[in-house]
Design brief:
A hairpin with a 7-residue loop joins strand 11 and strand 12. The protein starts with 17 loop residues before the first helix and ends in a 7-residue tail after the last helix. It has 39 helices and 22 strands. Helix content is about 40%, strand content about 15%. With about 1000 residues, the chain is α/β, with parallel strands linked by helices. Helix 14 runs antiparallel to helix 15.
Length: about 1000
């Protein structure tokens, strides 16, 4: 009798999980159950599976509502009915087609109208839902005549009084109102709970026809689903055979290009892979991916194929990836094997500027009926829970901030706050809203509305109503169309080099950049700021510790820094063995045979599979479970646990020492905590090398590109500093030289208008448009006449120095600006046949402190350009030691003066510690460690310059200073406010720092690891 059940997928309305709903039905001995969430089918596939487990007949549909008004409940008679319902709601969500309040155009769907929306005439498939509390209305003559069209309507939305209160809170959150002000029409009645069937039937005992009508609906509705068949587009051509033929042809064409000299090993590998691809019927998947890449190249766009797809030589020959799997001995079975039932997963990156071009191509090529983004369920998180629930209870913003940022133990012991905590905790793991997956695209064989309704978020691409896990379960495999800033930097740098130097660099030719001598030298010194993936303080430190000077070591470094490997101690052990190759023994001969290249250390996901198979003797099937666990497709540790028993049983049979097997499994288990497959590391390493090659040989253009792509590890100021250190002569924005982005002429680098926050991008772009059309601006008056700006914008441009090309000091320009705008009229901008010469003003000479410019720049750009931060200090002291000398001071105390670049928060058992990154007065970088006890007495006090006293520790060629004392050094008072003591130090607070947060414990040191270095 349950025709209208809601779960928490009826967002901010229902309070029951799918699992709890089905368990309730089991408890009440229901044999049939209908899931009808509001305007969504998100939960129907999980619902179907659970119902089958408990031998309940599942019926699926949708409760269709607009605003708060229920139009009708739609129940699918069959799979065509689901498609009809999905199309109906998709038109509403994506095409702004109004939902018909009555008689929607459906043929395989049963419609149940609430009593307040009954059409004058009911179709054969249309019924009226009568709630138990509405039965008394049936004595009226007009309703009696419709008994043959009535069904039992006993909605389910919550389970208890407590959940009813939670439902009301959710409705208040959804309507952004107070709980006390929520309108009754926006809330379900308190009796929408699942009652025993006997109790429901008792209410309708005098109307057996209503009961019979309801049972007929149950009999006429069916939902069956085949989870085993792939739902992706099957063929790129017209058939499997044609796909196979085309893929072979393309693979062999690519083979000739990739291996100009005949290579028997490559040819054999291509043959073997093509056979597996065809057997698994994945030829179409490869060809669709190839076609996307082909289009990308035709548009001159850069892409990087990464992830496990780079294990495939066919991918390499098709141009999807640029990693030769033979060179790195990449394990094809990690990507594709006959035990794998789901399609391969290609991850392809484009520049963040180009990705939409690729997306538009996909939607046009395969049709909007067949392409959509994967969805995600955004859950209520700790902070959002307390903010949202607290707001519903009417708490002020200050209280909401305190609740959100502090743990519950520190919350006030107040009655209302106790209620917020009580109901807030119930919302943990509840879906709060649906969103789009960052990169996952589904391309279906059937119209995608056969499986889901679509939604249209602000980005303008349709999104399915389920997430990637459900997509995979029902037979979809997503295409990952990713974007990143690193590729934007590469692409922009190449264009700048051609424009500025007339040199064409084919950065796609990886043989040019990979293992280039000077790039390797920079790499070993950690001089990689601005380079993709290898610019963070931790990565630069690792490169120096390894003296990394070649591609293969960089590939390993890209993986060992990942949290799983590092946290287990294997990163530390790898560094030791790399630097001391004669001071260790392999755990076991299998480790020497399988992992000789990485000193017997498991570095990549493939290594785990190799050791599990060759040392642990586990089956290929268990190996695939490991693969899925490590790639995040399964529930990491839970998936690994399935293999654990088999592993130890097998190790015992093979006679391995128990202690060694336990250590090996500990290492295997750590890979569930984020790690890379070797192909993924290799892809990253290639892009890192491409970046580094440009940085080494074209440093100014490369750093300008990094500034413009703004997505690196550091703030803009740091990239500007690095550009200056690379030889760039940095200039503040100029109305006659600057573009919207930062640009370069020879060695002169002009910051772009994009860095002036107070200038609207519309005005900035208009300046460029006008300058391009009618030439450079000849005076301030000429600028005012041609550009529609007010006094505030004009003053900002003057203060930042954008009019210095006029040869007048800022003071004079400010007076002139005010005089110009006092009597200026917009009609003066109209062109005139006789142009009057600009009026000349005799202005008094005004003195100006040269350092005033620096404070203007800090206020407008966030950092000084015309001088160094050190020039603004009250002291002339610059420290006893410079960063370049630190290697000579191992175990010695040093005193340094430094400017704070970044600090990283790391929790420990004793409290928070930080790792700092600084520049000295010469502009060189160095690193510090700040322990919890020291931070109590010598805390960070925001951005700026500090005097540091500490002890140098050189760890495998990399110096770090453990701080003993630290004091922030005062800058000079702001000379612009010499007469205003309150404002003299106001702008100093705008000096920035980069703070990154991590909740992982610090990586263990040698004495904490205890990894065996002798054979066990």
């Amino acid at each position: 009798m349950y025709l209208n059940c809601h779960t928490y997928h009826s967002l901010r309305y229902g309070t029951i999980s799918i699992e709890d709903l089905v368990h309730q039905a089991v408890k009440h001995r229901a044999t049939t159950l209908a899931l009808t969430d509001i305007n969504t089918i998100t939960g129907i596939y999980e619902f179907y599976k659970l119902c089958k487990v408990h031998q309940i007949k599942p019926i699926v549909g949708m409760d269709i509502r607009v605003q708060h008004e229920q139009y009708y409940i739609a129940l699918a008679k069959n799979k065509e009915g689901i498609a009809e319902i999905n199309r109906l709601i998709t038109s509403f969500n994506c095409d702004d087609v109004s939902l018909p309040k009555q008689h929607p155009d459906v043929n395989n769907t049963i419609l149940i109208y609430p009593i307040n929306n009954v059409p004058d005439v009911l179709g054969e498939h249309e019924f009226i839902g009568i709630r138990p509390e509405e039965i008394s209305l049936l004595i009226q003559k007009n309703w009696k005549a419709l008994l043959h069209k009535m069904v039992v309507l006993s909605p389910v939305t919550f389970t208890t009084k407590k959940e009813y209160n939670l439902h009301r809170i959710l409705r208040a959150i959804d309507n952004n109102t107070l709980l006390s002000k929520i309108d009754s029409i926006q809330v379900a009645p308190p009796f929408e709970v699942m009652k025993p069937v006997s109790e429901i039937l008792k209410a309708y005992q005098h109307y057996p026809q209503i009961i019979e009508n309801t049972e007929n609906i149950f009999r006429n509705c069916h939902f069956d689903f085949d989870f085993s068949t792939p739902k992706n587009k099957k063929h790129f051509t017209e058939s499997r055979e044609e796909d196979k033929k085309l893929l072979r042809q393309l693979a062999y064409e690519g083979l000739k290009k990739r291996y100009p000299v005949e290579n028997e090993a490559a040819q054999k590998r291509v043959e073997r892979e093509l056979q597996v691809i065809d057997e698994l019927r994945f030829s179409g998947y490869f060809l669709i991916t190839w076609d996307i890449v082909r289009y990308s190249k035709s548009r001159g766009l850069m892409h990087v194929g990464r992830g496990s797809g780079a294990n495939s030589i066919v991918s390499y020959c098709l141009g999807i990836t640029d990693i030769c799997p033979l060179e790195l001995d990449l394990y094809f079975e990690r990507f594709l094997n006959l035990n794998r039932k789901t399609p391969p997963d290609f991850d392809i990156d484009w520049s963040w500027q180009d990705r939409d071009d690729i997306l538009f191509y996909l939607f046009e090529k395969y049709g909007r009926d067949h392409v959509a983004f994967c969805g995600t369920n955004v859950e209520f998180k700790y902070r959002s829970i307390f903010r949202e629930v607290g707001k519903a209870f009417g708490l002020p913003k200050e209280d909401l901030d305190e609740l959100a940022k502090n743990p519950m133990a520190l919350h006030d012991d107040h009655a209302v706050i106790k209620l917020v905590q009580k109901y807030g905790m119930l919302l943990e793991k509840f879906p709060n809203q649906r969103s789009m997956h960052a990169c996952g695209i589904l391309i279906s064989e059937e119209p995608i509305t056969h499986y889901t309704a679509l939604e249209m978020p602000p980005k303008g691409f349709p999104v399915v109503q389920f997430d990637m896990h459900v997509a995979e379960e029902i037979g979809f495999e997503k295409f990952d169309i990713l974007s990143q800033r690193g590729l934007g930097t590469l692409s922009d740098a190449v264009k700048l080099i051609e424009r500025n130097r007339g040199i064409t660099v084919d950065i796609r030719d990886t043989s040019v950049s990979k293992n280039e001598a000077t790039a390797n030298e920079y790499l070993s010194q950690g001089r990689t700021l601005g380079c993709f993936y290898i610019e963070s303080p931790a990565m630069r430190g690792l490169l120096r510790r390894l003296k990394c000077d070649n591609y293969k070591t960089l590939v390993a470094a890209s993986s060992i820094i990942r949290p799983g490997v590092a946290q287990s101690g294997m990163m530390r052990e790898y560094i030791f063995r790399h630097n001391n190759p004669g001071q260790f023994e392999y755990f076991h001969k299998v480790f020497e045979e399988q992992l000789g290249e990485t000193y017997g250390i498991m570095v990549y996901q493939e290594d785990v599979i190799k050791i599990a198979l060759h040392y642990g003797g586990v089956s290929a099937e268990d190996g695939d479970i490991l693969r899925r666990a490590m790639s995040g497709k399964g529930r990491s540790l839970a998936a690994l646990q399935k293999v654990k028993d088999h592993f130890f049983e097998s190790c015992h049979k093979l006679g391995h020492p128990e202690k060694l097997s336990a250590e090996v499994y500990r290492q295997i288990e750590s890979f569930a905590g984020y790690s890379f497959c070797k192909a993924h590391s290799a892809s990253y390493a290639v892009e890192s090398y491409q970046s580094l090659y440009l940085k080494v040989h074209f440093p100014i253009e490369f750093m300008v590109a990094a500034i413009n792509n703004g997505g690196g590890f550091y703030r803009t100021e740091v990239y500007v500093h690095e550009c200056r250190m690379s030889g760039g002569k940095i200039q503040v924005p100029c109305i006659n030289k600057s573009l919207y982005e930062t640009t370069v002429y020879g060695e002169e680098v002009f910051l772009g208008f994009m860095h002036i926050e107070k200038i609207a991008s519309k005005i900035a772009r208009y300046i460029l448009q006008e300058r391009g059309k009618n030439g450079e601006f000849t005076s301030l008056g000429d600028f005012v006449k041609r550009i529609p700006v007010g006094i505030e914008t004009l003053q900002t441009l003057i203060f930042v120095g954008a009019f210095r090309c006029m040869g007048k000091p800022k003071n004079e320009l400010l007076i002139e600006a005010r005089m110009l705008l006092v009597s200026f009229r917009p009609e003066y901008r109209n062109p005139s046949f006789f142009e009057e010469p600009p009026q000349q003003y005799a202005l008094p000479q005004l003195k100006r402190n040269p350092l005033e410019d620096a404070f203007d720049e800090i206020e407008i750009l966030g950092f000084p350009v015309s001088c160094s931060p050190f020039d603004l200090l009250q002291t002339r002291y610059r420290g006893h030691v410079m960063a370049r000398e630190l290697l000579q001071y191992h175990k010695k105390q040093v005193k340094m003066l430094a400017y704070l670049i970044a600090r990283k928060h790391v929790p420990t058992k004793k409290g928070t510690m930080f790792f700092g990154t600084w520049i000295d007065a010469e502009g060189a970088y160095f690193d510090t460690a700040h322990f919890p006890d020291n931070l109590t007495e010598y805390p960070f006090q925001g951005g700026g310059c500090y005097l540091l006293l500490g002890r140098v520790e050189v760890d495998f060629h990399f110096p770090t200073i453990t701080i003993q004392k630290m004091a922030k050094m005062p800058f000079i008072p702001d000379p612009r406010y010499a007469e205003d003591q309150e404002k003299q130090f106001e702008i100093h607070r705008k000096i920035n720092e980069d703070v990154s947060m991590t909740w992982r414990a610090p990586y263990p040191q040698d004495h904490e690891i205890g990894l065996p270095r002798k054979q066990m």
